[in-house]
Design brief:
This protein has 190 residues and is mostly helical. The chain has 8 helices and 3 strands; from the N terminus they run αααααααβββα. β2 and β3 form a beta hairpin.
Length: 190
């Protein structure tokens, strides 16, 4: 309750992430209760926090060594870490960077053909209702590509990038930095 609204919203980004990758029904609950969550309405907030923690605990318990399923918890984090680095770890909260990364990943999922049309709009609408940003900071593509090259999820030249199959379903796909962040006429995958 002592946190400013901006910090509350940043924390809720991880709650949205849990729903977006594993539970469409939970995501719908967040859509219904977004304003109540920000207002710290315990009847909405406590079940949401419990559900998000349960999702994370289940994923971690099923994949303790991050061999596959656990990678889904990185949804939005690939570009979030790049944003944080490009911003010098100042002026942006981690949850805000994750929100930007999730919004980008949802849009990229639609472009790659892994998620149905409307998935990104729905995710972005919820994030925006929570007061979270959904656009990456304006930086040169080359700066983002350099930041992506140090991603911890890299295997050889590819990054295990988390895409949506729809709200509540996600998967890891191996992409190069240029496939994650294509130029104006960048590559498309099907």
């Amino acid at each position: 309750a002592s946190l400013p609204v901006r910090a509350r919203a940043a924390g809720l980004a991880e709650v949205v992430k849990a729903a977006a990758i594993r539970d469409a029904g939970f995501f719908a609950d967040l859509e219904r209760d977004a304003e109540r969550l920000l207002a710290l309405d315990e009847a909405a907030l406590l079940p949401a926090l419990e559900r998000a923690c349960a999702i994370k605990a289940k994923v971690v318990s099923e994949d303790e060594r991050e061999q596959g399923l656990r990678m889904l918890l990185n949804f939005g984090h690939t570009l979030a870490h790049a944003v944080e680095a490009l911003m010098g770890y100042r002026r942006i909260l981690h949850g805000e960077a994750v929100s930007m990364g999730m919004a980008f990943a949802a849009r990229r999922s639609e472009q790659l053909g892994t998620a149905p049309a409307g998935t990104a709009a729905r995710l972005c609408a919820l994030l925006e209702r929570l007061g979270l940003p959904t656009e990456l900071p304006a930086r040169p593509r080359s700066a983002y590509l350099r930041a992506l090259k140090v991603d911890k999820k890299r295997r050889d030249a590819r990054i295990h990038y988390i895409v949506l199959r729809g709200i509540g379903r996600a998967e890891s796909v191996p992409l190069t930095a240029a496939e994650i962040l294509p130029g104006p006429a960048g590559p498309k995958r099907r």
